[in-house]
Amino acid sequence: MRKLTYYIATSIDGFIGGPSGDADFFTPYAIGDFQAYMKAECPDALPTAARRALGVDDVPNRHFDTVIQGRASYDIALALGVTSPYAHLRQYVVSHSLEKSPDPDVELVRGDVAAAVRGLKQQDGLGIYLCGGANLAGQLTDEIDELVIKTYPVVLGSGMPMFAADFRISEFTLESVRSFDAGVHLTRYARKR
Q: Which PANTHER family match (predicted)?
């Protein structure tokens, strides 16, 4: 069975974006050995334009072949005129307001999102990348098999949390921690079974 991995960038205080969802303040830290890690170990999680810019567009996917993201995350790409931000993956966008997909390579998900993800997990293939955002992660908390958290050395004070959900405890087991020269820490957790 495939895994759903919430692969997310966050501040030290647990915010994945500012109050308006902006996360450009993380970009200056994607340098040096951290950038080398992203290129070598997980280029699947990079948007297609970033893969091209870093010269890894032709690298085969290693971890993910599918991405699911919320409408707010997808809107960031749409604002840049990009209708297929992860062209190297099967793309799903959860939206109740879009009438039809702006791109034939992007499938809209409506209704029971958790059931849709459970169906995707039953299919053959690589893992499923949960790109964001907070509301979608909150809806899929029980379906997340793995957390990969890129913690950047900034404190925001407020903004978009990693999960927007009602209070409940979901336990995960620490798998690994890796540090990079720019002060970024990559922490990997597996759902406690």
A: 2,5-DIAMINO-6-RIBOSYLAMINO-4(3H)-PYRIMIDINONE 5'-PHOSPHATE REDUCTASE, DIHYDROFOLATE REDUCTASE FAMILY PROTEIN (AFU_ORTHOLOGUE AFUA_8G06820)
Rounded distance, CA 39 to CA 57, Å? 10
CB distance 180 to 186 below 8 Å? yes
pTM metric for this prediction: 0.94
Domain locations in the chain? 4-191
SS (H, E, C) 72-141: HHHHHHHHCCCCCCCCCCEEEEECCCCCCCCCCCEEEECCCHHHHHHHHHHCCCCEEEEEECHHHHHHCH
Q: Which CATH superfamily is 4-191 part of?
A: Dihydrofolate Reductase, subunit A (3.40.430.10)
Judged by DSSP in three states, 183 sits in coil
